[in-house]
């Protein structure tokens, strides 16, 4: 195969000399590099150039934000993407390939490459491929990073300065679920924060979680659980499955959010839509 390569050298776990290492690994696997871009300047232009090339696939090494950028640029009509882990959380590579190191993933996929289609969530013109978190608890992204590095004072400061423990700011969530034989029924709930994750499997959908602690102390406990284990293991959380979600800030304020860990904000209301076939990824062929 002829491969286009994009590397973000500023992603947290991409090493110095990444271009040389990746080039050597690809050549050792018996494949050719058509073009290679390594640099954080004009990264989106590099991604678009790779997506518009006649390469058989695009190898992208970076964090979840870089990988999402590449998947969005390639979409369904461009080359499939091989997503190598180079960030902090690496949610997408873990979903696709497990916990292997970048060179293990590369070797495994290129030894017997196959193409799969993945879904995405869409908010305005932005996409996510694993999950979005909406509400003040998005401040946990910075807090979790401080905890990961052992900087507990910085973690506590981020909790306070980001108003992560604010239970006065309320969100209203609305979504539709299939109700037995009677068709779709609309669900509405008020909560402090909401998480919307894309389920894996042949029929993608959204798993929506309304996070609604009853007190600041309960929210603090939820925040600690989410910092250590992630929001899916944090309580109290109410779960449901749907294909679209609308989130309103009851005070009309902007809604802070993370898209696959990248912090952003949106004007209320926020409409979260599922794209069932959003992009193609390069995976290792599996026996059936």
Walk me through this protein's architecture.
The structure is a single chain. Helix 3 links the parallel strand 3 and strand 4. About 9% of the residues have low confidence. The longest helix is centred in the C-terminal third of the chain and has 14 residues. The protein contains 8 helices and 16 strands. The protein has 288 residues and is of the alpha+beta class. Strands 6-5-16-13-8-9 form a 6-stranded antiparallel beta sheet. It has 2 domains: 110 residues, 3-Layer(aba) Sandwich (Rossmann fold), CATH 3.40.50; 146 residues, Sandwich (Tumour Suppressor Smad4), CATH 2.60.200.
Briefly, what is this?
It contains eight helices and 16 strands. It is of the alpha+beta class and 288 residues long.
**Strand and helix order:** EHEHEHEHHEEEHHEEEEHEEEEE
| Low-pLDDT runs | 143-161, 219-224
Shape: elongated
> Mean pLDDT, as a whole number?
83
- Number of DSSP helical runs: 8
Biggest pleated sheet? 6 strands, antiparallel
Percent in helix: 25-40%
Backbone CA Rg: 20 Å
Strands, count:
16
Secondary-structure content class: alpha+beta
How are the strands ordered across the major sheet? 6-5-16-13-8-9
Strand residue percentage: 35-45%
Report the end-to-end length measured between terminal Cα atoms. 24 Å
Which architecture of the largest domain does the CATH hierarchy give at level 2? Sandwich
- The CATH topology label of the largest domain is Tumour Suppressor Smad4
- Supply the CATH class of the largest domain: Mainly Beta
Number of domains: 2
